[in-house]
Design goal:
alpha/beta; 22% strand
Length: 183
């Protein structure tokens, strides 16, 4: 069974975090939410308080198949400013593990990584300038090597399904989508 950590910071985008967690759990992926704050309770950009499964200091990440960063403001800014998280993401990227980010997170978090070559990514419109070393696409979901990026909140479900497809299989992603009456 795949193991995934999804990181939460004050001001995370609700649907980008919770839809992805929901989809992965429907696909039988062991996903845990991780607060980078000092508390397990993290308030979203829209005022919903979520209790994370773990604190960042309890996670070493070496056991992860994927690390995921939702967007939202100021959530993505907090993620990008968290040195411990950036180190964890860099190790995951360097070892070829899956790293996924959506909305503002590709720009404000993944831009902090030292990447090999020029990756193709997408992000929320207006954040492209944060990604000068990348080929920024207007597509909704972009997969390039071990990176998956999504454009914004309206694409949270397809983004979650793409992560599930990469972690488990296309068949399981289609089963989960069908059970959710998608497509």
């Amino acid at each position: 069974m795949s193991k995934v950590y999804l990181f939460l910071a004050e001001g995370f985008e609700d649907i980008e975090a919770l839809a992805v967690v929901d989809i992965l759990r429907r696909g039988n992926v062991a996903v845990q939410t991780v607060s980078i704050m000092d508390s397990l309770e993290v308030k979203s950009a829209h005022g919903v308080t979520v209790k994370a499964d773990r604190l960042l200091r309890e996670v070493d990440g070496n056991d992860a198949d994927a690390l995921i960063c939702p967007g939202g403001l100021p959530g993505a800014e907090h993620l990008g400013n968290c040195e411990a998280l950036i180190r964890l993401l860099q190790r995951q990227y360097d070892r070829g593990g899956l790293v996924a980010a959506i909305c503002a997170a590709p720009a404000l978090v993944l831009s902090r990584l030292v990447m090999k070559g020029k990756h193709r990514v997408t992000c929320y419109p207006g954040f492209e300038a944060y990604l000068p070393g990348c080929d920024v696409s207007a597509e909704g979901i972009v997969v390039d090597g071990n990176l998956i990026t999504g454009k914004g909140p309206g694409l949270a479900i397809p983004f979650g399904l793409k992560v599930l497809e990469k972690l488990v299989s296309t068949e399981v992603a289609h089963e989960v989508a069908g059970g959710m009456l998608i497509g």
